[in-house]
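Input/output pair, single chain:
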Amino acid sequence: MSNEHSSKNRLNIYGTKLNSRLLIGSSMYPSPYVMQQAIRTSGAEVVTLSLSRQNPQASGGQAFWESIQSLGLLLLPNTAGCHSVNDAVNMARMSRELFQTDWIKLELVGDDYNLQPDPIALVKAAEILLSEGFKVLPYCTDDLVIARHLVELGCEVLMPWGSPIGTGKGILNPYALQALRDRFPDVTMIVDSGIGLPSHASQSLEMGMDAVLLNTAVAKAKDPLLMGLAFSKAIEAGRSAYLAGPMAERTAASPSTPTIDSPFWHQST
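Output:
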């Protein structure tokens, strides 16, 4: 594979090129050691973290922060748990200062029942943060119009949900995600939340999505290390299938063995 083709085939996040198409979270693991090993096994190059959990200045946070640093990965702070534009913007500013990165996964809870993102507040917060030089990765629903507003503001990455956070239900609305992919072919699309199985991740990549972000599916598995490896392989398979070009679906059966020039047997009477 040429260097030029290899570069084009890499994940692009605001100009940063990555080999892995898996972004992974750092919470809910049985221990910091298991977290480190599972993330390494997954091959992920980006790890998400929240200020409320991994604040190096918080009591008891230093050891966990050191375990994150030892991974040597790119950091993607998030604004998890924020319910207002002001809270999300302030958390993003503090995260940039503490973690020394302009990347921010922008999350704004709009409903506490299913943790659905607040689309109106999300757009408002994204506009503020983009104006301050943040590289915003907004966690959004699969709504095409909201996505258009975010792209028009300057978001080069969108993170639409597959299904609500922590449900493990996979992609509930393939049509909506495919519409996003088709409408914004040049925008990096990372399916976020609801990914419970490697097959869900593979499906996302087969659709042409650029990457997936997950946490619970690995952290809460009986064997997080093995599950991290499984996701890594599934994502690679899904991307290869997309690049290879899957066969077209048909409404009727089609023989896989041609009948032309095949011998025709007559039954004697």
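The domain at 3-244 is CATH 3.20.20.70 (TIM Barrel). The first strand starts at residue 11 and ends at 13.
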